[in-house]
Amino acid sequence: MSAAGGSRAIVAALAANLGIAVTKFVAFLLTGSSSMLAESIHSVADSGNQGLLLVGGRRAKRAATPEHPFGYGRERYIYAFIVAIVLFSVGGLFALYEGWHKLQHPEPIDEWQWVPIAVLLAAVAMEGFSFRTAIVESNHVRGGQSWVQFVRHAKAPELPVILLEDLGALIGLVLALIGVSLTLITGDGTWDGLGTVCIGVLLVVIAVVLALETKSLVLGEGATPEAVRRIQAALLADDSVERVIHMRTLHLGPEELLVAAKIAVRHDDTAAEVARAIDAAEVRVREAEPIARVIYLEPDLLRPAAEPATQAASEPATQAAAHAARDGDDLVPPAR
Predict the structure, then answer these.
(1) Mind listing the pLDDT tens digit for each residue in 178-229?
(2) How far is 192 from 198, CA to CA, in rounded Å?
(3) Domains of the chain by start residue, with CATH
(4) Which residue, 126, 175, 259, 280, is the most exposed by fewest CB within 10 angstroms?
(5) Please, is 290 exposed, middle or buried when counting C-beta atoms within 10 Å of its C-beta (0-12, 13-18, 19+)?
């Protein structure tokens, strides 16, 4: 995902949610509507979430240190997971509590009856602008994937988070609009409480989906099958590499991939020839998959019972390697 595209979507969502939160809270103060209060807290939580995503993106850019030699790219995943927790607790649980309270003590909306309708319609327009921005930015990187596939398989968390938040916000606004309208028509505050409960259930469901998807990224995901095929093809593009015995990949961040592979080289090559073959293979891999920033290649000889090549891209790269590829170092002994 383009970092610039993700930032644009986050900023658009933050601006929209800050404006929406203010207007909703004013409407709550004037009318006492529980749906308006739930939506106000929802927008405040969303604004805080966008702030968290921006902080995570900034912290992920820190340089690697001896204590964290692979850098801080996965902080973006951590902050996205925190977003799911905030949405669940501050947004969803509060709305459920407020809705239950309203159902126990329903109250009609007697004053400023036009205010909640006007505020909700204005919020729909602002939220729609944010959602449109997220869709446009997502289409730049989505390719041929469906929206469900994009949310489930994206390695960068920002756009899927914004998409789900904005979608949930729009559905929540419609639920609030229905609850408030029925309350105004019937004079029964129970409808307002039911709308608030529905908003709470919606936010909890979205938070759980976000938590499940970001948990997988936090644990560590490998490259996509398409990326694995490109890497394997690049390794085998020269006859100095006879076979990929096995390979592991791991995303160190959305735009940084670790590749570790054991490759079969010709049995009669000298150490210098093997070193040159590994250097050339690293160059080919980086050309085929530019986000492959860290590459470890271990040379071996092809034996009759050698382990077949595998695409186990989802497994972390635990195999030690003979060659650290950051700077194109010379061949070093394999770590065992």
Answers:
(1) 988 898 888 888 898 898 899 889 989 999 998 998 998 898 899 999 999 9
(2) 10
(3) 3-219 (1.20.1510.10), 220-336 (3.30.70.1350)
(4) 280
(5) exposed
- CA 6 to CA 158: how far, in whole Å? 6
94-104 helix and 34-59 helix, angle to the nearest 10 degrees: 170
Strands 241-253 and 256-265, how do they pair? Answer: antiparallel
Q: Are 309 and 232 in contact (CB under 8 A)?
A: yes
Residue 196's contacts (CB-CB under 8 Å, 6 or more residues apart) are 34, 35, 37, 38, 95, 98, 99, 102, 176, 179
**Distance (Å, whole) CA 232 – CA 226:** 10
For the whole model, what pTM was predicted?
0.73
What DSSP line would sit under 140-195, residue for residue?
A: HHHTT--HHHHHHH-SS-HHHHHHHHHHHHHHHHHHHHHHHHHHHHH--THHHHHH
